[in-house]
């Protein structure tokens, strides 16, 4: 079944109108009136219905049912401000793995990276990639996206619970940590964080953990850590 994102309320018995992207997608799939579709709003609301009308720049859907999607145990990500394409890829996978929130951190080495994934235009692209990942995966929730922050502000904003700092120099493996929700996973920048940043994170209650014997790219580390934590919390 084709899944579409909508920002309108999903109400059984009503009709909702989707935009030009949905119309183009239907034409590409050669789908039309009567086609069953699923709906998601990214805030836990979902539904199903059928295509009632297809215009050049819009699609009307008769909504047959509404249901709620439970949110999984909270896992928050502190991601590095880094190369924009690699950040976008990480955003897609984190949406598929049901990350609760996404906050970019401006590490010292983040400033030397280009093209940098930051600013309003990038935030719009980021949301678009998250929406696409949500509809493809059939999830119910988009991550809450926060503005980029320096290290101190990111620590202050992190919820209490298990705070993990991915650090390839740590002797403790992530899989050995007993998790208490909410979980916060902090991912360092390309080239790693400096000793002062590491000390600041540890002083802020973060436990240094590693994933592998090798040094992972930040997007690989983020995906792997979130998958490990999700598996542990879902037991």
Textual characterization of the structure:
31% of the residues lie in helices and 25% in strands. With 235 residues, the chain is of the alpha/beta class. The protein folds into 2 domains: 2-68, Hypothetical PUA domain-like, domain 1 (Ribosomal Protein L25, Chain P, Beta Barrel), CATH 2.40.240.20; 75-233, 3-Layer(aba) Sandwich (Alpha/beta knot), CATH 3.40.1280. The chain has a 6-stranded parallel beta sheet, sandwiched between helices. Strands 1-3-4-5-2 form a 5-stranded mixed beta sheet.
Major pleated sheet: 6 strands, parallel
CATH topology of the largest domain: Alpha/beta knot
Question: Mind telling me the C-alpha Rg?
Answer: 20 Å
Number of helices: 6
Poorly predicted segments: none
Query: Do you know the CATH architecture of the largest domain?
Result: 3-Layer(aba) Sandwich
Percent of residues in β-strands = 15-25%
CATH class of the largest domain: Alpha Beta
- What is the approximate shape? elongated
Instruction: Sketch the topology as an H/E string, one letter per element.
Output: EEHEEEEHEHEHEEHEH
* Integer tally of domains: 2
Topology of helices and strands:
Blueprint: E1 2-5, E2 15-18, H1 20-29, E3 36-40, E4 45-54, E5 59-68, E6 75-80, H2 84-96, E7 101-105, H3 120-137, E8 144-145, H4 151-157, E9 162-166, E10 183-186, H5 195-203, E11 207-209, H6 218-233
Descriptive terms for the model:
alpha/beta; 5-stranded mixed beta sheet; 2 domains; elongated; 235 residues; 6-stranded parallel beta sheet; Ribosomal Protein L25, Chain P; Alpha/beta knot
